[in-house]
């Protein structure tokens, strides 16, 4: 009796444990599908956006003479910032695709019929959203500003690099007003062939340097263009007299054309979070003093963006997390989700943009993000379902009926409706 009672009492416990294992397997299955879809969507979106940004920096190769390796290094520094921009939308695409596939394969129907909680589907999506949010928080507060700062420094270094501007075979390069360089070729060791320099900076005298070989060297703290086996043409502006001077070696000083400082002015997105928090730090520069509002706006934008993946995952679950039998119903749910996400992202962008000068905008930015998340969690916790307002639903039904009627009339006129008569 006691043994049977013990066995009977153990059976429910074994069944409950089996159910928990099954639910965990289902959650891991949904997480894997969503994570795979997210990574594919993220890669595709980053690739498209990176290509557009890379084309804007193509002048590094065509105009500045930088190597392809430098070009890819420069453009790769923008990837953390691009990841922050596209990651929430990649997660939205992954959630919609995963939930839509689960419904199409009748897996949501089976889960509902088995009495499984809605959290079985929500938990893996929310876990993925939290991982994305944590990654975005790291990138937005440290990774992206550091990468963009390095990017700005490299671009500034390339823009003021006299060697990069001169060493462009076959092009006439104007370094400054009335000073033009041209070279025929550049050897692998860096030496230049067929050098031509036109120097008319002095209003009274113009010089033309022509040399078979040349090289750029750093010596005694100066940048020198050392020319060999050439000629100098000296022409006076007043009377046009021309004199020629042959030389075996001649040094042309380029130091005057090299800026003494290459420190760029960093934008808000390129400054550290600590600097934004203190609005420029203890010793703010002129840009920080004149643009304190932009620094404040950038700070709130960095801190609120990681909340977007969580909000997007919850909104997509509310719209598509329940089984639907009609394709039209899911189509309208997807459209509604995209519209809601667009409104939320636009509202958050407007609020953070105005946060630099308005405390109300700061409250709206945080209230919008946290409010959507809190409302969605409350709806899920109370086991409610989100539906379109009656007026909107009736309007959409009316539009659908009108479109269907127009399509039927068009099909009748084109002879596409009804059965075709068989020809004898």
Keyword list:
424 residues, alpha+beta, 2 domains, seven-stranded antiparallel β-sheet, 7 strands, disordered C terminus
Give a description of the structure:
Strands 1, 2, 3, 4, 5, 6 and 7 form a 7-stranded antiparallel beta sheet that branches. The longest helix is centred in the first third of the chain and has 55 residues, at 2-56. A hairpin with a 2-residue loop joins strand 1 (172-176) and strand 2 (179-182). With 424 residues, this protein is of the alpha+beta class. The protein has helices at residues 2-56, 59-62, 68-76, 79-104, 107-113, 119-159, 162-166, 273-277, 286-290, 292-304, 308-320, 327-354, 359-381, 390-414; strands at residues 172-176, 179-182, 185-186, 192-199, 205-219, 222-236, 242-253.
Brief description of this entry?
This protein has 424 residues and is of the alpha+beta class.
Secondary structure blueprint with pairings:
Elements: H1 2-56, H2 59-62, H3 68-76, H4 79-104, H5 107-113, H6 119-159, H7 162-166, E1 172-176, E2 179-182, E3 185-186, E4 192-199, E5 205-219, E6 222-236, E7 242-253, H8 273-277, H9 286-290, H10 292-304, H11 308-320, H12 327-354, H13 359-381, H14 390-414
Antiparallel strand pairs: 1-2, 2-4, 3-4, 4-5, 5-6, 6-7
Helix pairs in contact: 1-4, 1-6, 4-6, 4-11, 6-11, 10-12, 11-12, 11-13, 12-13
